[in-house]
Design goal:
It is a single chain. Helix content is about 40%, strand content about 20%. With about 625 residues, the chain is α/β, with parallel strands linked by helices. A nine-stranded mixed beta sheet has the order 2-1-11-10-12-13-14-15-16, with helices on both faces. It has a five-stranded parallel beta sheet with strand order 4-3-5-6-7, sandwiched between helices. Helix 15 links the parallel strand 13 and strand 14. Helix 2 runs antiparallel to helix 3.
């Protein structure tokens, strides 16, 4: 696992950082131990089970981590070996991760939403010897592929209910055996963790494979700890903050967020599921919420729908309040004074509408942080004007992940902020964003050629994104380099900004721009059927099912007009000439979205080939 085997010497230079201070942890295992000593909490980790919230104290958290670490110890499993984690978010996910970091075992997080074939590929490619599995239900989805993973030696179940002893052991059994070993050898954990260096590989995270075969990204302790410290430097996080963990821990964005929570002594709460997030927000009342744009888009869409269903008057009041919010946010974020009359209107709108936005998040929110995909200016203005400021950041798995971020010191609409401390950004001649810093990966596991290709000759990491830096150093993302497509007329189109424009329509839930090597751009559109129901009722249209809505000429005409209205100002070659309405939402389970809800364009091109061909026939 030595990164030197897959990277050039100049890449090492790109990761230099001012050494950690004496107070800062040198490894991820040390991060947990130091945080528990500095912040002895009764409720370090909290989770909901059987209708009630339960907590794990800092002391108990460390004891369990050490027991798991000792339980993993065996002559065949040690430093540098891999242990995969296949589970939804829960305290056990974090405990298993920390235990691996304490012993030098490299963990491999796997999304539970991946297909068995994809999980098999990751297990085989990583050579994982241990697999942590959430429960019997998850195991049953992968049991048939396990014989194809010869390196696997041990299955450990967080919940072993209904699991035969011959299949694997429970986490409780592993902890008990580890506790016995520590009793016999009190210095065992110290011996296991001794010698782990900041530059050692800590984790192997497989990219979602939106454009090809997944690659295992090797991230070191230095990569992740530097990102925790540097990404949080311009925020005012304290031990009084209370986050709700929502995004999958298998994604480096939430994973690094978890380390940041622990490092700052926050009281972490795990959401039960995406479906339960609204309920959990009311119960936990978090001060910090990390999400992806799709979450904020859905919150807004639901609020608008609720107003529309209440009455025509309430819908008009809602729309008026939203325009006031956007106007006020534009002025404030550009440093301009807010006129007295606008301030009065904003105060009225706050009482009628905005407070409900804040109440959705529990009412105590201090910071919303968005990442994983581009946040539209429209959503950013609406939430900021409503008193729920969203700080948009930018990064990749390969950069641990944060490269830049808006924060309480520096914030600019339409940007992803300034580069965080110790990270540098430059723009290549073709517009590609390049970065270097201590957060940049060691390389791709067992893929030296792919590693070399993703770095420049002088050691800068090629992000694959197109963007620009303004005069004040704020970074703006234009599009994914690989997602740019060329029409048959030779014109290049960046789909993401156009999709963001179209999604500003309340009648549109999802949109994917198409047109590579075609005469013109078109769009696959998933309507917001709830909004369409309200519209149909108003217009006296007797439509009930998604099939009926998508087939109705009046609905198609409405959405064509919405597309034309939201994309005014585009160049002629960028304008969307035709649309196709889709009955079903693009989902992770359907394969059209990554686990962080980014569009898999290659999958959509293949899966909906007949629909796309029909547009151009």
């Amino acid at each position: 696992m030595n990164s030197g085997a897959t990277t050039a010497v100049n890449i090492e230079v790109s990761r230099k950082r001012v050494p950690f201070s004496g107070d800062e942890p040198q490894t991820l295992g040390e991060l947990f131990v130091k945080a528990a000593g500095k912040y002895p909490l009764d409720n370090a980790l909290s989770y909901k089970k059987d209708g009630a919230w339960h907590s794990i104290s800092s002391a108990r958290m460390i004891a369990r981590i050490e027991n798991i670490a000792a339980g993993l110890y065996s002559p065949n499993i040690g430093r540098g070996d891999r242990a995969a984690i296949l589970s939804a978010n829960c305290p056990e996910w974090t405990l298993a991760d920390a235990a691996c970091q304490l012993t030098g075992i490299i963990d491999v997080p796997i999304y539970t939403t991946l297909s068995p074939a994809s999980i098999c590929y990751i297990l085989r490619d990583s050579g994982a010897k241990v697999l942590f599995v959430e429960n019997k239900s998850v195991w049953e989805t992968i049991r048939e592929i396990l014989p194809e993973c010869p390196a696997l030696e041990k299955l450990v179940f967080y919940d072993a209910s209904g699991i035969d002893a011959a299949v694997g052991i429970s986490l409780a059994e592993l902890e008990n055996s580890g506790s016995e070993l520590i009793t016999k050898n009190p210095k065992l954990i110290e011996e296991l963790s001794r010698g782990i260096k900041p530059d050692d590989t800590a984790t192997l995270i497989y990219t979602s494979g939106t454009t090809g075969e997944p690659k295992g990204v090797m991230l070191s302790h230095m990569n992740l700890i530097s990102n925790v410290i540097d990404a949080g430097a311009r925020f005012d996080f304290t031990g009084h903050d209370k986050p709700l963990s929502v995004l999958p821990l298998s994604h480096v964005f939430e994973r690094t967020g978890m380390y940041l929570y622990i490092h700052n002594g926050m009281r972490v709460h795990y959401a039960q599921s995406i479906e339960k997030v609204p309920e959990n927000l009311q119960e936990v009342r978090p001060t910090l919420f990390v999400g992806v744009p799709r979450i904020f888009e859905k919150v807004y869409a639901q609020a608008k729908l609720k107003a529309a269903k209440a009455s025509r008057l309430k819908e008009r009041i809602f729309d008026w309040a939203i325009e006031i919010a956007k106007e006020q946010a534009r002025l404030k974020t550009s440093g301009q004074a807010v006129p007295r009359m606008l301030a009065i209107k904003h105060s009225i709108a706050d009482h009628l509408v905005y407070k409900k936005f804040r109440e959705f998040f529990g009412g105590d929110l201090r910071h919303c942080i968005s990442g994983g995909a581009a946040l539209s200016d429209e959503i950013a203005l609406i939430f900021t004007g409503a008193g729920v400021s969203i700080m948009q950041g930018y990064g990749l798995t390969e950069t641990s992940p944060v490269i830049s971020s808006n924060n309480i010191i520096d914030w600019r609409l339409g940007t992803v902020g300034k580069p965080i401390p110790n990270v540098e950004v430059r723009i290549a001649a073709d517009g590609e964003i390049e970065a270097r810093g201590p957060n940049v990966m060691l390389g791709y596991y067992n893929k030296p050629d792919a590693t070399r290709e993703t770095f420049t000759a002088d050691g800068w990491f090629r992000t694959g994104d197109i963007g620009a830096l303004d005069a004040d150093g704020f970074l703006r993302i234009t599009d994914r380099k690989k997602e740019l497509f060329k029409t048959s007329g030779g014109k290049y189109i960046a789909p993401a900004p156009i999709e963001q424009m179209i999604k500003s329509s309340r009648f549109i839930s999802q949109v994917v721009l198409i047109g590579s090597e075609r005469k013109f751009a078109s769009a696959l559109i998933v309507p917001n059927f709830e909004q369409l129901e309200s519209y149909a009722h108003l217009k006296g249209l007797h439509l009930k099912t998604p099939t009926e809505f998508c087939a109705d000429p009046k609905i198609k005409d409405l959405l064509e007009r919405q597309v034309a209205e939201t994309t005014q100002g585009l160049a002629q070659f960028e304008s969307v000439k035709k649309i196709a309405l889709m009955e079903n939402e693009f989902t992770v389970e359907g394969g059209e979205l990554t686990p962080t809800l980014k569009i898999k364009r290659r999958v959509i091109d293949e899966k909906y080939k007949d629909v796309i061909d029909g547009i151009y026939s």
